[in-house]
Amino acid sequence: MKRNIHPCGIRGFKWEWVFALFLFAWMCMNLVQSVCTEVLSDEAYYYMYGEHLSWGYFDHPPAVGVMTYVSSLLFGGNLGVRFATVILQLGAIVVIWKILSERSPDRGKVVLFFLLTASFVMFQAYGWVTTPDVPLLFFAALFLYGYKRFLESDSLANVLLLAVSMAGMTYSKYHAALIVGLVLLSNLRLLARWKIWAAGLLALLLLVPHFYWQAANDFPSFQYHLSDRSRSFRWIYLLEYLPNQLLVFNPFTFGAAVYVLTKYRPADAFERGLYFLAAGLVIFFWGTAFRGHVEPHWTVVASIPMLVLLYRRSLKDERLMRYVRKWIAPSLLLLLVARVLLTTDGLLPASLSFSGKEKVSRRIERIAGDLPVVFTGSFQASSNYHFHTKKEAFTLSSATGRRTQYDLLEKELGRQGQPVFVCQDNSSKSERYEVDGGVVYGYFVDRLQTVNREEITYTLDRTDALPGDTLWIPFTLRNPTAHAIDLRHPELPVSCRAVYAIGRKKEACMVDCEWVEPLAVIPAQGSVSGQVRTIVPALDAGRYQFALTLVNPICAARNSAYVPFEILRK
Predict the structure, then answer these.
(1) Phi-psi bin for 434: left (phi > 0), alpha (psi -120 to 50), beta?
(2) 406: part of which helix (H) or strand (E)?
(3) Is position 10 within any domain?
C-alpha cells in the first residue's frame, strides 16, 4: 500500500516545512475569507458581547465575547470580529496533529492530514466565522490531547492540562459537559483515580466566576437552553437531522467515518473515547430532536475524533485510502467554489444572510441619523445596525419572543424620555421611507417610554375556563426602574392584555384587560396593586400558556411568568 502522498512541488521539503506551508496557506485563506465575506448577524451580536465584557452572557458563556474583544483591539471591520477565530483554529489544527503522535511523520502524511481536515465542512467554516463553537473546538482538541497524555502519565502537568481544557470548553459552550461525560463513560475506571477528581475540582474552581454570574442573574442561560428552546414534537425535526449532519461533515467524509466506526474496534482506551465522542454526539443530539429543532453545527466537535480515526485507519486500509483519493479529495473543489461564492455580493440567496445586511443598515441610518434605533424581536437587526454604523441600537423583546443579551443590558433605560427612531414594519404608527433603492419602515418618537423591565405578579383562581367566561385577576405591578410609567403617555400609552400562547409562545392570542380601578401612573421604583378583568377568547379547546403583559405601540412586553391554562370545549 502506498502510505505516502507526494503532491507535485513539495518533494524537496522536510515534512515540518510542508506542515508549516499548509498551515500558513490555511491561515491566509481564512484571513482573505474573513475580510471579503460580510459578517453574519450572530457575529455582529457577539461583537456587541465584546463591547460589554462579562463573565457570562444570556445565550452563551463568555469566551466568544473575549474573542471579539481581542479581535477589535487589533483590527477594525470584519477582522475586528474574526481575527481571534483564525488564530484559534490554527491552534486547534496543531493540537490535533499532536494528538496523532506520529512517530515517523513524512510529507505524504501531512498532506493526508490537511486533506481530511479541510474536508469537514463546518470545521473549515469555523476557521473564519466567529461563534462559540470556535473556542469549543480548540479546547476540545486540547482536552483530548490532555486525556491522551493523562492515560500515559497522570503527572501534575497533565492534570493541569485536563483542568484548564475542561474549564475552557465550559467557558466556550455548555456542550462541554456532554464531551467530558462521553469520554468518562468510555472509561469508567477513570472514576477510581483521584487525580481525575482533582482535575475536575480544579476546573470547577476556574469556573466559579461564571457560576457566580449565572446565580446573580437568575441563571438566564440555563433557563433559555433547558426550557425556553423546547418545542412541541414535530416529525420534521427528526427527519431533517441526518441530512443536516451530512452537510455539516461533508457526505463523503461522514460516510467514511461511519465505515470506520462500524468496521473497526477501538485499539485502546483513548480510541474508545474517540468512538464514544464521535458516535455519542451525533446520537445524543438526534435524541434532542424530540424537543425541538437541532442546529446542525451542534455536533461539530465530533469532527475531531472522526478526523483522528479517519487519518489512522486510512494509513492502514488501502480500500479506505482509495476512497479518500477518489471521493473526499475531489469534494474539496466544491468547498473551494462555495467559499469563493461566499465572498461575492448577490450570487447567493439573500436567505443565507451572507450579504446585504450592511446595505439595510445604511438605509436605516439615512433615516434615523444620529438617533438611537429601537428594534423589536430581532436581536440580529439591532446587532447588524450597530456593527455596520457604530451607532446606538437595541432590541426590545416581546411577550411572545425570546429574550436576549439586550434584556440583561437594559440599554433602553438610558434613553427614557429622549427621542429615538423605532424601526418597525408591523405598527400602525410606521411610515414608509424609500431610500437608496430600498424601503425602511418606522417612526420617530420624541419621548421614549418602554415597559419591558416592569414585573407583574398575579393569581389565577382557576386553571381552566370556557370561551366567554370572565376572569378576575388580582395583580401587583412593580416598577424597578428610575422612571415613572405614564399609562396615558401622549405617544406611547400603555395598556394591559392577557396572553394565550401555544408551544414556544410564538403563536399567541392577546386579549384586552380592563383595570378594575383606574390606573394612570406606575411610580418609579414603586409598585401598585389591583385587579384586572378579561374575557376568555373564543379559541380552540386545548392547553395554553397564560400570562399578563403591558403593551405600548412598540411591543407587548414580557412582564410576567407563563402558567398553564386550559380552554374547555363548550
Answers:
(1) beta
(2) helix 405-409
(3) no
Are residues 106 and 50 located together in one domain of the fold?
yes
Which of 342, 371, 401 is the last residue in one of the domains?
342
User: Does 328 lie in the same domain as 182?
Assistant: yes
Residue 413 lies in domain: 356-445
Residue type, position 127, single letter = G
Question: What's the rounded Cα separation, in Å, for the pair 116 and 409?
Answer: 43
Tell me how far apart the alpha carbons of residues 338 and 524 are, in angstroms, rounded to a whole number: 55
Model pLDDT for residues 300-335, shown as the tens digit of each residue: 999 999 999 999 999 999 999 999 999 999 999 999
Pull the grid cell for residue 480.
Answer: 424597578
pLDDT 10s digits, 66-122: 999 999 999 999 999 999 999 999 999 999 999 998 778 889 999 999 999 999 999
Q: Could you give the CA distance from residue 148 to residue 137 in angstroms, rounded to a whole number? A: 17
CB contact set of 261 (below 8 Å; sequence gap of 6+): 275, 278, 279, 309
Q: Are 396 and 450 in contact (CB under 8 A)?
A: yes
Alpha carbon distance 113, 107 (integer Å): 10
Q: Please identify which residue in the block is written with the cell numbers 419621548.
A: 447
Residues 302 and 322 in one domain: yes
SS (H, E, C) 268-310: CHHHHHHHHHHHHHHHHHHHHHHHCCCCHHHHHHHHHHHHHHH
SS3 44: helix
* H helix or E strand, kind and range, residue 472: strand 470-479
Which pLDDT score, from 0 to 100, does residue 44 have? Answer: 97
Do residues 563 and 546 touch, judged by C-beta distance below 8 A?
A: yes
**Three-state secondary structure of 176-208:** HHHHHHHHHHHCHHHHHCHHHHHHHHHHHHHCH
- Grid coordinates representing 567 are 380552554
Q: From CA 326, how far away is CA 95, in angstroms rounded?
A: 28
Does residue 3 sit within a domain?
Answer: no
Number of domains in the chain: 3
From 445, 479, 495, give the residue that closes a domain.
445
CA angle 431, 399, 526 (to 5 degrees): 100
- pLDDT classification of 243: cutoffs 50, 70, 90: very high
Confidence of residue 341 (pLDDT cuts 50, 70, 90): confident
Residue 169 covered by a domain: yes
pLDDT digits (tens, 9 = 90+) for 502-550: 865 567 899 999 999 989 999 999 999 999 999 999 999 999 999 999 9
Instruction: Please indicate, yes or no, whether residues 186 and 293 belong to a single structural domain of this protein.
Output: yes
Quote the CA–CA distance of 96 and 118 in Å, as a whole number: 13
Percent of the chain at pLDDT > 90 equals: 81
Confidence of residue 422 (pLDDT cuts 50, 70, 90): very high
Q: What single DSSP character describes residue 556?
A: B
C-alpha–C-alpha distance, residues 472 and 155, integer Å: 67
Residue 398 lies in a domain: yes
Confidence of residue 52 (pLDDT cuts 50, 70, 90): very high
The residues near 547 (Cβ < 8 Å, ≥ 6 apart) are 399, 498, 499, 501, 558, 559, 560, 561, 562, 563
Map grid coordinates 437594559 to a residue: 410
Phi/psi for 552 (5° steps) reads -125, 175
